[in-house]
């Protein structure tokens, strides 16, 4: 059995790795094992927030795969800009470096007003703490190096559908005038029972990796690490989360037994809410990356084929 190093943060236990990529330090997957100890690790939350803003802030031409574009936005019209658009760059640089060395504001060309950050570090830390410590239960796996720099994460927490709607999903649906009741009715088509606003779910809320750290084994380790940490009582719940069809998160969730609930037109991006039995997702990821790919290779290839642009 491999000897794992001690985690740089109290409350985390390294459970997998190392994962190696050219030019990167060794990366490890750590599970959140003691939230009370982790709560006092301030640097953990700063590093998490930096990784979050970096993972979701980049866009084309640097990040042509996920292209979340969530760096700055216009409060009036909703236009968004990626890190690349704000700083006029075409090669990867971290958001910390750019804001420290090349900080600048930007305006919305349509509204001629200053654009705002999707997330500022101090506000994002409050959100992360809320999801880890204020929910009924929360679980997570973290990709990090031995110096404590975070490169990826997968957080999930237990809450009601009503809470998930009010805190997260209503933002995505507001433009389309879709109600919570309409969402529940559609989700029930593929569920095993009636869904009500007070139904508890496993909210698979945050999963991402920074661009330089993307590594197939490390990504799968994040998925498996989070589900491995969930007690059996919570694996009876339905898991729900938002993803983009073209990215690996979507493909691996579909292969693990999830179904699409709603498609969300969101500016230039198409996002979907997926749902599926937490126990089945857990069991499929427990096969390990090789076993999982071997079992679901045909389905994954078909999903990728279906997502290719159609010839006119």
Task: Kindly list the characteristics that best describe this protein.
312 residues; alpha+beta; 11 strands; 23% strand
Structure description:
The termini are far apart. The longest helix has 20 residues, at 288-307. This protein has a domain at 135-139 and 154-312. The chain contains eleven helices and eleven strands. It has an eight-stranded mixed beta sheet, with helices on both faces. A three-stranded antiparallel beta sheet has the order 4-3-5. Helix content is 37%, strand content 23%. The mean pLDDT is 89. The protein is α+β, with helices and mostly antiparallel strands.
Q: Which percent band covers the strand fraction? A: 15-25%
> Care to count the β-strands?
11
Question: What share of the residues lie within helices?
Answer: 25-40%
Oligomer: single chain
The end-to-end distance, rounded to whole angstroms, is: 54 Å
CA-based gyration radius? 19 Å
| Major β-sheet profile | 8 strands, mixed
Shape: globular
The strand line-up of the biggest sheet is 1-2-6-7-8-9-11-10
The H/E string reads EEHHEEHHEHEEHHEHEHEEHH
Structural class: alpha+beta
Task: Indicate the topology.
Layout: E1 12-19, E2 27-32, H1 35-38, H2 42-57, E3 72-73, E4 80-81, H3 83-87, H4 95-101, E5 116-117, H5 121-133, E6 137-144, E7 150-160, H6 161-173, H7 180-188, E8 200-209, H8 216-228, E9 238-243, H9 248-255, E10 259-266, E11 269-277, H10 278-285, H11 288-307
Parallel strand pairs: 8-9
Antiparallel strand pairs: 1-2, 2-6, 3-4, 3-5, 6-7, 7-8, 9-11, 10-11
Helix pairs in contact: 2-5, 8-10, 9-11
């Amino acid at each position: 059995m491999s000897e794992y190093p001690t985690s740089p943060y109290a409350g985390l236990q390294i459970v997998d790795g190392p994962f190696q990529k050219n030019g990167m330090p060794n990366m490890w997957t750590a599970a959140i094992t003691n939230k009370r100890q982790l709560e006092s690790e301030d640097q953990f939350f700063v590093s998490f927030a930096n990784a979050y803003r970096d993972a979701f802030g980049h866009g084309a031409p640097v990040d042509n795969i996920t292209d979340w574009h969530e760096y700055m936005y216009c409060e009036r019209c909703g236009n968004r800009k990626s890190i690349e658009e704000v700083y006029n760059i075409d090669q990867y640089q971290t958001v910390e470096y750019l804001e420290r060395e090349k900080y600048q504001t930007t305006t919305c060309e349509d509204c001629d007003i200053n654009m705002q950050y999707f997330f500022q570090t101090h506000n994002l830390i409050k959100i992360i703490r809320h999801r880890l410590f204020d929910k009924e239960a929360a679980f997570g796996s973290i990709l990090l190096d031995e110096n404590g720099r975070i490169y990826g994460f997968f957080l999930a927490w237990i809450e009601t559908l009503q809470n998930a709607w009010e805190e997260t999903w209503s933002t995505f649906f507001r433009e389309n005038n879709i109600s919570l009741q309409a969402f529940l009715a559609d989700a029930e088509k593929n569920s095993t029972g009636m869904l009500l606003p007070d139904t508890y779910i496993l909210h698979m809320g945050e999963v991402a990796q920074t661009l330089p750290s993307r590594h197939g084994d490390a990504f799968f380790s994040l998925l498996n690490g989070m589900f491995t940490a969930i007690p059996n009582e919570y694996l009876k719940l339905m898991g729900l989360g938002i993803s983009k069809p073209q990215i690996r998160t979507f493909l691996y969730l579909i292969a693990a037994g999830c179904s699409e609930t709603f498609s969300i037109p969101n500016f230039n991006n198409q996002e979907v809410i997926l749902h599926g039995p937490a126990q089945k997702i857990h069991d499929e990821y427990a096969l390990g990356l090789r076993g999982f790919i071997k079992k679901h290779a045909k389905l994954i290839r078909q999903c990728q084929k279906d997502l290719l642009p159609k010839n006119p």
